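Hi everyone,

Forwarding the result from last night's run.
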Amino acid sequence: MATLFSPSLLRDVSLPRSAGLARVRISVSYWWRHGRLPDLDAPRTFTEWVQWRKLNERSLVLAAMTDKIASKAMVVAQLGAEWVVPTLWSGTEAPDVPPWPTPFVIKASHGCNQYAIVRDIGRDWPRALARSRTWTTQHYGKWLDEWLYSKSRPGLIVEPFVGGGAAPPTDYKVYVFNGRAEVIQVHSDRLTAHRWVQYDRDWRRLSAGADAAPPQTLGPMIAAAEVLGKGHDFLRVDFYDLPEQPLFGEFCLYPGSGLDPFDPVNLDDALGAKWAAARRELGKH
């Protein structure tokens, strides 16, 4: 991924507007989840803007953010090494016998929701190893037309399991529009009864779901997300909440691939308006 940081490549790539089959696939999948066709030329809602990004956004800066190794380097450069989970190993094929202390997590470095937690080498590693070998056989995001993922080379990364408990720590996903954090989406109990709820930056609940207490590190988390999101019309920045300080998880360019309906629906409209306003602030049309 080193080439993604070359000054000559850190620019928007001008490519023809996507058309044809991609527009049909995106429209049909959107209709299937939302019950209506999206406006791909003049998006209004947040979920429509995600579809617009699929068809039009060709920034190699954003593409670098889909790679977990490259994105860590970005965060270290802007916030410092204490904000990222240490990397125990990265490569394209994990060893038959893992040398890392347990518990650890092996992930695809080029995609989302591809990970395995290893607590016991004899019990967990054979299955995790087999799964990891399937992750590197293809580019992530192709089937949903998420172009930015196509620039990340398939690979693997191993990190220590953070949080100290049996379950992963609570995950906070901060929606940032040109350096302004507007929504924090809280994910908890991922391994048992996964649920989430959305709050505004002042911790007023916006969506359906059980109430969650704000993390003690909410202020630093919002400040860090705003540093990382400055200059981008929309960027979701994810953090793990730990007592000592938040840790960066990943960037997300296509939340839910724009296919998850909002509850309430008017939140989709409100965040779409913020995306459009951020583009106007940045001089994008």
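The chain has two domains: 1-85+162-285, 89-160.

Cheers,
N.
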